[in-house]
Amino acid sequence: MSHLLADHRDRTTALEDFQHNLVVTAGAGTGKTSLLTGRVLTALLGKQLAPASVLVTTFTEKAAAEMAERVEGALAELAEGAVNAESDAGRALSVLRESFGRDQDSIARDAAALLDGELPPIETFHAFCLRTLCENAREAALPPDAHIAEDLDTDELFDEFWLSLADSELSGHCTQPILDEDAWHALLSALGIDEIKSALRSWCRRPQLALYRFDTSIDESLDRLTSV
Fold first, then answer.
1. Which residue segment(s) compose the domain that 195 sits in?
2. What is the band of 150 on the pLDDT scale with cuts at 50, 70, 90?
């Protein structure tokens, strides 16, 4: 029983505490989505944050669609006033009353107004980042109609890049090659052309690797290791 009470207290804290950053870790089927839905409701109806200042992000489009459906359904339930105590709306209603001092009639009015207006964005991380970039396209030096590239698009772009790179680097006409002739000879002696292409393709799919420092020689690696 004490475990259930402790869990209830934690769940309530997640719905009412907007002064701290909160992290919820729990297994599948334990109610994380329900808790997040409730937090959106208390943010809008308790803390009374503007919808545009609330952002909900997920990993998948399916999860984003489910979250949007649950938030809208809970708002509709609150707006109608016939609230099931065990639903997302019911659990949020209890906190709205006890922690935020809201009465059910005013909650119903505000919920109805939210449904008639614009709800908070609920989207994937990719969609959020793309929307932010497009809204600031000039600063980001991107076209305003930029879109997320599909795997087929990126494969075609890489193939074009690879042909251009190979022609430039290996033709002997490049004035500023990425690798000099000796380096290319060593690389081609160790790896086949297909292996180099595959490795470079993997690299291009992980742009975060550009943030890491890579040594340019074995001596540099040894010097850095011995200094640790």
1. 151-226
2. confident
Number of independent structural domains in the chain: 2
Identify the residue whose tokens are 């809970």: 74
Secondary structure E strands in 48-170: 56-58, 122-124
Is the pLDDT at 45 greater than 70, yes or no?
yes
How many residues belong to the chain? 228
CA dist., res. 129 & res. 132, Å (int)? 5
Answer yes or no: is 61 within a domain: yes
How many of the other CB atoms lie within 10 Å of CB of 99? 15
Q: What is the rounded (10 degree) CA torsion for 214, 217, 223, 225?
A: 50
From 88, 109, 138, give the residue that closes a domain. 138
**What pLDDT shows up at residue 206?**
77
Q: 41, 97 in Cβ contact below 8 A?
A: no
* pLDDT band at residue 170 under the 50/70/90 scheme: confident
Q: What pTM value is reported for the model?
A: 0.68
